[in-house]
Amino acid sequence: MTYTIKFGTDGWRGKIAEDYTFDNVRRAAQGFANYLHATYSPAEVQRGVVVGGDRRFGAEDFTAAVAEVLAGNNIPVHFAGFSTPTPVISYSVVARNAIGAVNITASHNPPSDNGFKVRDPHGGAIDPAGLKAIEAHIPDEMEDVYRVKFDEGVESGLIMPFDPKPAYVAQIEKLVDLQPIRDAGLRVAVEPMWGNGAGWLTELLAGGSTQVFETHSERNPIFPEMKRPEPIPPNVDAGLAFARSVNADVVCIMDGDADRCGLGDEHGQFVDQLRVFGLLAMYFLDVRGERGPIVKSLNTTVMLNKLAEKFGVPIYETGVGFKYIAPKMQEVHAMIGGEESGGYAFGAHIPERDGILANLFLLDLMVKTGLKPTQLLNRLFGMVGGPHYYHRIDTPLKSNEFKEEAKKRLDAATPETIAGLKVREKVSIDGYKFIMEDGGWLTIRFSGTEPLIRVYAETTHQDKLDAILDAGLKMAGIE
Q1: Contact between 37 and 49 (Cβ < 8 Å)
Q2: Least crowded by CB within 10 Å, which of 63, 345, 413, 475?
Q3: Is the pLDDT reported for residue 9 higher than 90?
Q4: pLDDT averaged over every residue in the chain
C-alpha cells in the first residue's frame, strides 16, 4: 500500500526510515514539480527552485535526492546544500528570483524525524489551497518520478550549487545596524540547539567589545541534553545553565532550523515566547516608531492587541502556522507577524520566520534602550496593564479514536466560567479558543505536525493559570 503524504501546519514530516524514506521524499519532490508546471508558466518555472536542508540525519542525501528529481523535471535547482538555516533558504528565493523552495527539515521535531517544507515565490509558506494542490500532484508510484543523477545535473547546469550567506548577510545589514551591538560590550550567550543557526550570530557580531559565547554548536543529529531542538523548557535548560556559567547579559536561542527565536534574561531565566512577541512589537512601535499591521496566530498573546490599540495599528488573527500567517502578512502589508511557537516574521524582510534576525532585533532593543531583558519586560508590562502569564501542556494522542472523542467533547463544550472567570466567547478558527473576561484565553488544538493535543492558556491572574490549564485538559478528556 502506497504511503499517503499529507502536509500539516508547516509541510510534511515523518519518522526517518519508516515514513520518511528516499522514495517518499522523491515522490513529494515530484508532486512539487508537477504543481509548479501546472501552476506557473514555463518561463516562470525556469526561474528555478532553491533547495536546502538542516543538520538532521541523512540531510545531505535527502537534499540531493530532491535536487535530482527537480532537475529530472527540467526545473533549475539553486542548491544551497544542507546545514542552511530556514530563513536563509527562504530569503534566497527572493535574492535569486526563484519560483519557490524545498527545505529538508523537521524544525523542532524529535531526532527521529525529518521533514519537507515548500515555499512560494516570496519565500513564504504556501497557503492551504496550494498545499492541497501539491498533495494532489504527488504520484503513487515511483515509475512516475523523474530524476537525474546529481553529478549529471551539476554538469548540465540544471543543478547550481551556490553560497547563500553573502546575500542574506547583506539583507540583515540593511535591516539592523550591527555595529552598535558589536560595540555595546554585551556578554551574549547563544544556544543554537545543535542546529543550523550555529555560528551565525557569532560571526555577525564579531569585531567589537561584545563577546559571544556559543554552546551546542556542533552537528549532532541526536540533540544531546534536550528531547528535541524546540526553544522552550526543558530543552533550553542546559543552554540557560551555560549562560549563567559565563555570566551572560542575555541568551539568544534558536531552534534546529533557526527559524524560531527564544530568549533568556540576564539571570539565565527563560522568557516565554509570548512575552518575546510582545517585546518585538514594542521594539517596532515604541522604540523604532514604526507603524503597520500586526498578524498573530490565535494561540499567541493578547498583549499584542493591547499594544495595537495603544499605538493605533490594526491587528489580524489567523489559524496556527505560517501557511495562514504568511499570506495574511502579504495581504495586509504587515509590520510583524508571528505565532506562539516562537516564530516571528518582519514585513521589511520576507513573510517567513527568522530566528537569526529576531534575536538581532532583541539585541538592538537592549542597545537602543540601555535596558536589560527584565527591565524591558517591566516596560512592556507597564504598557499592557501588568504581567501576562502563559503556559502550554502537550499530551500525546492515545489513538485516532481518542482524537475523535476529544473533538466531539470540545465541539459540545460551552462553559460559562473557567477557573472562576466568565467565558466571553468561544472561537473555532483552528482548534477551540475560549476568551475570558480578563482578556485571557484558553486554547485546545491538535498539532498539525505531530500526534499531540496541545492546551495553552494566557491570563493576567497568575494564581489561576494552572486551574485554567486543568479545565482545558478535562474538557478534552485528558486525566
Answers
A1: no
A2: 413
A3: no
A4: 96
**DSSP for 354-420, written as a single string:** -HHHHHHHHHHHHHHHT--HHHHHHHHHHHHTS--EEEEEEEE---HHHHHHHHHHHHH---SEETT
Look up the pTM and report it.
Answer: 0.94
Q: What are residue 103's DSSP bridge partners?
A: 52, 117
Q: What is the Cα–Cα distance from 465 to 102, expressed in whole angstroms?
A: 40
**pLDDT above 80 (res 1):** no
Whether residue 451 is predicted with pLDDT greater than 90 in this model: the reply is no
Q: Is a pLDDT exceeding 80 seen at residue 370?
A: yes
Distance, CA of 451 to CA of 350 (rounded, Å): 30
pLDDT tens-digit map of 53-81: 999 999 999 999 999 999 999 999 999 99
Cα 135 to chain centroid distance, Å, stands at 22
> What domain range is 440 assigned to?
389-475
HSE-CB for 288 with a 13 A CA cutoff: 20
Same domain, 63 and 182: no
Q: What is the CATH number of the domain that holds 151?
A: 3.40.120.10
Question: How close are the terminal C-alpha atoms of the chain, in Å?
Answer: 36
| One domain for residues 243 and 349 | yes
One domain, residues 153 and 191? no
Residue with cell 502569564: 389
Q: Could you say which of 384, 409, 434 is where a domain stops?
A: 384
CA-angle at 218, arms to 94 and 198, nearest 5° = 35
CA distance linking residue 120 with residue 97, whole number of Å: 11
Amino acid identity for residue 149 in this structure: K
What domain count does the chain have?
Answer: 3
CA–CA separation, 389 and 91 (whole Å): 34
What's the whole-number mean pLDDT along residues 451-457? Answer: 93
**Residue 7 located in a structural domain:** no
Q: What pLDDT, in 10s, does the model give residues 272-307?
A: 999 999 999 999 999 999 999 999 998 999 999 999
Per the domain annotation, does 171 fall within a domain?
A: no
